[in-house]
Amino acid sequence: xxxxxxxxxxxxxxxxxxxxxxxxxxxxxxxxxxxxxxxxxxxxxxxxxxxxxxxxxxxxxxxxxxxxxxxxxxxxxxxxxxxx
Length: 84
Fold this sequence. Notes:
Layout: H1 3-12, H2 14-22, H3 24-42, E1 53-56, E2 71-74, H4 76-83
Antiparallel strand pairs: 1-2
């Protein structure tokens, strides 16, 4: 998926995305993702403005956690491809 397609999808479903992220479950997931990224920044694996993404090898939804052994750094493209 190209950035342009992703952007147009976001615009098309913006209300849905915003509502999902604002729900209590969405907030909890966002906090967990932020904690994972912060953990790798503190460990020196990535930098604050790094374009790469932190991925959970075993998804949070499927019982994975924020343990270092469950985290990996992927490019945005590779991370999106993983779940398509």
